[in-house]
Amino acid sequence: MIEEEAVVARTEKGGIWVEKPRKSACGGCMQRCASATVDQYLGAPIIRLQVFSQIEVQVGDRVMLGIEEDAIVKGSLWAYLIPLLGLFLGAVLGDVVASALNSPFSSDGLSAFGGVVGLVLSFFLLKFTRVLSRDHLRPVILRKLS
């Protein structure tokens, strides 16, 4: 279980909204690199998430959020692998169609077009099947800290 601390910002019927300042990529170093300088002048952006809870919390409470590691791995697999497969399958299909039809167009052009179409269709597949918005991919409140 991956855990992270957050603050309750709002409570609603459908869930609880929590906020957490985003950590910079090099939050632990003292080298004063560009990332630290940008964070210093622009401020750390705040991440807002809707989470589920069996625990009674109030606005302003500090809570510990948790999400299962395998949920992150599966979500990443869906988010990266499906579009990549759509790109490759679309490109191969475009090349096959160009070869089968003896098209006057370049097979490279139709292959590129097929790849883009496959990529876009895979994004629609992920969007409308809601694979990445399942409840098991959302963090939950594990405990109240204060």
TrEMBL record:
Record has Membrane as a keyword: yes
UniProt keyword Hydrolase present: no
Residue intervals passing through the bilayer: 77-98, 110-128
Q: Which domain of life is it from?
A: Bacteria
Q: Which UniProt keywords apply?
A: Membrane, Transmembrane, Transmembrane helix
Task: State one Pfam family annotation.
Answer: RseC_MucC
Q: Which InterPro entries match?
A: RseC, SigmaE_reg_RseC_MucC
Identify this protein by name: Sigma factor regulator MucC
